[in-house]
Amino acid sequence: MSFLRLCLLTLALLFPALTTLAQEGPSGTITTEQSRQQDADIAVRIREILHELGNYDDVTVTVREGIVRLRGTTASMAEAQALEPLVSRVEGVVAVRNDVTETAELARRLDPAVDRFMARVNQLLVVLPLLVIAALVMGLITLIGFLVARMRQPWDRLAPNAFIADVFRQFVRIAFVIIGLVVALDILNATALLSTILGAAGLIGLAIGFAVRDTVENFIASVMLSIRQPFRPNDVVEINGDQGKVIRLTSRATILLSFDGNHIRIPNATVFKARIINFSENRERRFLFTVGIDSATDLAKARDLAKSIVHDLPFVLPEPKANAWLGDITDAGTELNVAGWIDQTETSLLLARGEALRLVKLALEHEGITLPNTTYTLDLPGPFLAAEASAETPTPASPTPPPKPQGSRAVAEVSSDEDGALDRMIDAERQSEEKEDLLREDAATE
Q: Bridge-partner residues for 276, per DSSP?
């Protein structure tokens, strides 16, 4: 009885282990026949995959115990390196040994490039009719834009001058080109490229803007100066210390003719920001000169005399009145400042100033008002001079009478016709139609 119970207890203990073994299946090493069949299946599967991919005709595949060995050559090293991760995905592969190298044959290495080129040529031939239609549509839209931009109206009516009208026309051309490009891309079903093109254009425009910001600033200044002109042709102006008569305003610079006959070219950006003095804006203009008189003379008499002389000149305007005032006291005497006003459209400023100076000097000398003598006498005392003075008895010199005033009191001609040479030079240059000019007589002024 005890032996029977011991057998039953042993069976009870072994029953769970037998049940588990039956559920898990057989274990242990695979038989030789099963391993060879599995290796052959893996090799066949890999060869089929490589055959479908192409470019791997020279690659051989051997499989032993689940380890795949690849030999041969490919057209590029990238294709050889792509084999290992591909083969590793095949079921049953334990490891991969990749001995594939890049071929040294030039023809095989060029084959992929030739294939890609031929594929692109075939794609181009397929899309060529659509591309021709898109190009024709874009060209037609661009042509319409250029024809619209060439019309005189409404651009000449909308713009204050010809330069701004040309700017409007350029904007119209650019707008039609962009519209044509969008329509062409839509025909090609490539509108996604538009955002890329616009982004690239924005970056390129930003880079160009930084590179040519001086040019852009000069262009904007030209637009502003052409709309609100601070001067007219033949005006006498001073810009940044350069003085002359205005010849023309171009889209890049302001051209002046100096009083020496030289051309002065000032960039419009400089003109727009500079301090401009327009001497021709008002008809009335003042001339000023300074006369030195001896401090020992009657200063009030000299001042009143100079004022009355200038006031009585026929070319001096009665209003504003001529004036004279005493300036600084210097080593050479006292300065007498004299000013008078003229109509510069009828009178030459330089000739009027020179004639007034001549007549004031003549009147002062006639009244006995002496002008300062800037001649210096050096007194050198010493034994030699004392001996020479004792040896010779100087003869007292008779006082030299003051020189009589020389010159005519008749007023010379000071007409502005004397300055007509510069005006004729400017008019001759402005009549040339080949040169750009933005100045207009009817334009708004500041």
A: 239
Q: For the segment 239-270, what is each residue's pLDDT rounded down to a tens digit?
A: 988 888 898 888 888 989 888 888 899 998 88
CA distances from 19 to 6, 15, 22, 25 (A): 21, 6, 5, 10
- What pLDDT sits at residue 223? 81
pLDDT tens track for 130-175: 888 888 988 999 898 888 888 877 776 776 666 777 778 888 888 8
Spatial separation of the C-alpha atoms in residues 396 and 184, rounded to whole Å: 111
Per the structure block, which two tokens stand in for 32?
A: 């030789």
- Give the amino acid at 443: A
Separation between Cα atoms, residue 74 and residue 111, nearest integer Å: 11
Tokens 């009885």, residue located? 1
Is the overall model pTM greater than 0.85, yes or no?
Answer: no
